[in-house]
């Protein structure tokens, strides 16, 4: 059996797909590490939904988990060597499908009149955690792309913008999902109403 520890990261570096070693503190590593964190939080949300007998979103969420792995692999590529690897990529169709899911859930929800505070039920709160981590992943990816010397022949030109767009739509999806879960569980929304000074 292969050992899980390799000792190759003992000096604070990690290997990209393509062989290049970079610091574990690099923004690129922070990007795909945060996608991993998002996936873990999403796994907990799926378990909580199953426990609450809310099955409808589960199939979509499991597919999103696979897409997060796909994006993580693309972000773990050495940008200059990306064309050599045949990895699955996010497409504009994936983004459209998210939008359709958002529209379907929104159809059942009341119009928003206030900002909403996370909470009311553990599953709703977990959906908000997933949303917040997704927003952080998006911000990190934007910062990483802005720091890249992108050229026309660079694999990143084709892959990174779609990843950012997908994450942006995904955080919207998770926000609407949090409201939809509350709707299915008959949980009143915690409206943020600022106190007058």
Automatic annotation (TrEMBL):
A Gene Ontology BP annotation from the UniProt entry: cobalamin biosynthetic process
Enzyme Commission identifier(s): 2.5.1.17
Stretches assigned to the Cobalamin adenosyltransferase-like domain: 4-181
Protein name per the record: Corrinoid adenosyltransferase
Protein family per UniProt: Belongs to the Cob(I)alamin adenosyltransferase family.
Record-linked NCBIfam families: PduO_Nterm (TIGR00636)
Key words of the record: ATP-binding, Cobalamin biosynthesis, Nucleotide-binding, Transferase
Annotated metabolic or biological route of this protein: Cofactor biosynthesis; adenosylcobalamin biosynthesis; adenosylcobalamin from cob(II)yrinate a,c-diamide: step 2/7
GO MF assignments: ATP binding; corrinoid adenosyltransferase activity
Organism: Arachidicoccus ginsenosidivorans
Pfam families in alphabetical order: Cob_adeno_trans
Keyword Nucleotide-binding attached: yes
Reaction equation(s) it catalyzes: 2 cob(II)yrinate a,c diamide + reduced [electron-transfer flavoprotein] + 2 ATP = 2 adenosylcob(III)yrinate a,c-diamide + 2 triphosphate + oxidized [electron-transfer flavoprotein] + 3 H(+); 2 cob(II)alamin + reduced [electron-transfer flavoprotein] + 2 ATP = 2 adenosylcob(III)alamin + 2 triphosphate + oxidized [electron-transfer flavoprotein] + 3 H(+)
């Amino acid at each position: 059996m292969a050992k899980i520890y390799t000792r190759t990261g003992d000096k604070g570096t990690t290997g990209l797909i393509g062989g290049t070693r970079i610091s574990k503190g690099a923004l690129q590593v922070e990007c795909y590490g945060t996608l991993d964190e998002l996936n873990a939080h999403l796994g907990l949300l799926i378990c909580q939904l199953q426990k609450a007998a809310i099955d409808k979103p589960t199939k979509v969420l499991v597919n999103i988990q696979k897409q997060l792995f796909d994006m993580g692999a693309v972000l773990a590529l050495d940008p200059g060597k990306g064309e050599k690897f045949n990895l699955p990529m996010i497409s504009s169709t994936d983004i459209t499908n998210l939008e359709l899911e958002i529209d379907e859930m929104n159809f059942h929800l009341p119009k928003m009149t206030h900002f909403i505070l996370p909470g009311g039920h553990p599953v709703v709160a977990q959906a908000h955690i997933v949303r917040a981590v997704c927003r952080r992943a998006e911000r990190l990816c934007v910062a990483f792309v802005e720091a890249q010397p992108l050229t026309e022949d660079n694999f990143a030109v084709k892959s990174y913008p779609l990843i950012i767009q997908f994450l942006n739509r995904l955080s919207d999806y998770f926000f609407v999902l949090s409201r939809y879960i509350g709707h299915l569980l008959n949980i009143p929304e915690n409206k943020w109403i600022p106190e007058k000074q």
